[in-house]
Design brief:
heterodimer; A: alpha/beta; Rossmann fold; six-stranded mixed β-sheet; four-stranded antiparallel β-sheet; 10 strands; 31% helix; globular; B: mainly alpha; 11 helices; 2 strands
Chain lengths: 248, 287
């Protein structure tokens, strides 16, 4: 049995069935072995947060699920289909959308082109009116160059463009990094609203105070393994441990 | 004065070929990050395909304008799928050497079968003759080449800069990994882009066949000047390569009138000056 399977699964939130199942996931960047057997689950309709220090393997976990890490091993099941060998475009077409840490706004595209870039992979994506309702700033800046937006607007654009696609499983990598508190609050509201609308969200965050406002469950990643997991209701009881894990 | 206009026209025609070829090079460099030294050989193949279509299949010039770019484009896509795609992420030098090798092989094969002399390809009946414009005599075919090249260049620019497909291409040039993670089949897009760039070279070859004859080394002679054009315009810039292509053709033509001795070197002198002042080219990005 892999060592990480020793971690108790956090209490499940009142949500749907299992949508993502990661077992003994290992990943490498060239010769560097980054993930050493990650195990966790995400249930439909919940917000799960991966917490951990810099370099623990959180982003690599998301990238491995998305299929953009060269070498992976183990098992990743999305809706009971193993996707460990699938290419990233196929994974996206199965309904997983990824918002990278560096936001990935394209400088040679204007805001409208950035917004319309990801193809619709299945029906049920948010129409543009609803996206502009969530992020009114974007509507006013449709013709601006993507990278001329402020950091907060770029983050909104990075989230907005994946909502159009019809993917119902979103992976957001540090969406609050480097943003002003008022923008962080707005992103928190957006995530809460998406959750209400039935999206499943896997969030990577270092800012657990922000995460606690939106997450149902948490997993702690360290040295490429899941070392702990708990639900939001258990957060207060685990605060001391969490401070030690995150070094804050 | 007539001689000046005539040289200007020659300059514009050469500029048309420079623009079509450097545009293809820019498209390929932007997407694949490969300096495609095989471009001259593929241009030559376009002219030969037109020649074969006419002499073996009885297919005329107008259909050749359509079929030759498609046939040579498919050949280019096979090259990309079987060889060039393995160079992803490697230094530019590998792509340059591989495509240079491909150019030598293709040219060698054609030279083996057809020698070095030119094969005739006649101007289509509809474009024979000329027009007296008052200040000069304009051969209709040459006017057609300039206008058609300009239209194709602008259509390519529009495709890349103003359409949804073009936005995908531009995004994939910046960050192919992320674009693929959005669900876009980037490897297929790269193959098609290479096919498009090669198709433009083949189209230039067909346009050139009635003017320059069909010769195995017709591309080798031209490609060195085209690379100078690309260096001056800047690698990877679509509009830059079009404008520089036509402008340098005209500058070359004017030099032929005012100081003929320098006409073969003026482009290279300009290249040296541009490299000294702006190493990324007039409109380009750093490689």
């Amino acid at each position: 049995m892999p060592e990480t399977a020793m971690v108790d699964a956090p209490a499940k939130a009142a949500t749907g069935g299992n949508i993502l199942q990661v077992r003994n996931l290992e990943a490498w960047y060239g010769e560097s072995h980054i993930l050493h057997g990650i195990d966790f689950d995400v249930n439909a309709g919940e917000v799960v947060t991966l917490l951990g220090r810099n370099g623990a393997g959180k982003t690599t976990t998301l990238k491995s699920i998305m299929g953009i890490i060269g070498k992976r091993a183990g098992s990743i099941k999305f809706n009971n289909q193993d996707i460990i060998r699938a290419t990233s475009d196929k994974i996206a077409r199965m309904g997983i959308a990824f918002c990278p840490e560096e936001r990935g706004i394209f400088s040679s595209l204007d805001v409208r082109e950035n917004l319309l870039l990801p193809p619709v992979v299945r029906p049920g994506g948010l129409p543009l009116e609803q996206i502009f309702d969530l992020f009114p700033n974007l509507k006013e800046r449709l013709n601006s160059q993507g990278t001329k937006l402020s950091g907060g607007e770029q983050q909104m654009l990075a989230i907005a463009r994946i909502l159009r696609t019809g993917a119902r499983f979103l992976m957001l990598d540090e969406p609050t990094e480097g943003l002003a508190p008022v923008i962080i609050q707005q992103i928190g509201h957006t995530i809460a609203r998406l959750k209400k609308e039935g999206f499943t969200i896997l969030l990577v965050e270092q800012n657990f105070r922000f995460a606690s406002t939106v997450a149902d469950r948490y997993y702690v990643v360290e040295h490429g393994k899941i070392i702990d997991g708990f639900s939001n209701a258990e957060l207060a009881a685990n605060m001391d441990k969490l401070h030690t894990y995150l070094g804050v | 004065m007539q001689a000046l206009y005539a040289q200007l026209l020659v300059g514009l025609i050469n500029g048309s070929f420079y623009a079509l070829l450097s545009l293809g090079l820019a498209v390929i460099f932007g997407m694949l990050n490969i300096i495609n030294f095989a471009h001259g050989a593929l241009y030559m193949m376009g002219a030969f395909v037109a020649y074969f279509l006419l002499n073996l299949g009885g297919i005329n010039y107008w259909w050749a304008l359509l079929f030759a770019p498609i046939i040579v484009g498919i050949f280019g896509m096979i090259l990309e799928r079987t060889m060039l795609k393995f160079l992803t992420g490697l230094d530019h030098l590998y792509g340059l050497l591989l495509t240079f090798g491909i150019a030598l092989i293709v040219q060698g094969v054609f030279q083996n079968y057809f020698g070095s002399s030119g094969l005739p390809y006649s101007i289509p009946d509809q474009l024979k003759g000329g027009m007296n414009l008052g200040f000069m005599f304009l051969p209709i075919y040459r006017g057609w080449v300039v206008i058609f090249s300009l239209v194709v260049c602008l259509a390519t620019w529009f495709l890349i800069e103003k359409t949804r497909l073009g936005a995908n291409l531009r995004a994939a040039t910046e960050n192919p990994t992320l674009v693929r993670a959005f669900g876009i089949n980037v490897p297929r897009m790269i193959t098609l882009t290479y096919g498009l760039g090669v198709g433009l070279a083949a189209l230039a070859g067909v346009l050139s066949a009635p003017i320059n004859q069909v010769r195995p080394l017709m591309g080798a002679d031209l490609i060195i000047v085209v690379f100078a054009v690309v260096v001056i315009g800047g690698m990877g810039s679509i509009m830059g390569s079009i404008i520089t292509g036509f402008a340098l053709g005209v500058i070359e033509g004017l030099t032929k009138y005012f100081y003929p001795e320098a006409s073969n070197t003026v482009v290279f002198v300009l290249m040296v000056l541009v490299l000294l002042v702006k190493p990324t080219g007039l409109t380009g990005r750093a490689a």
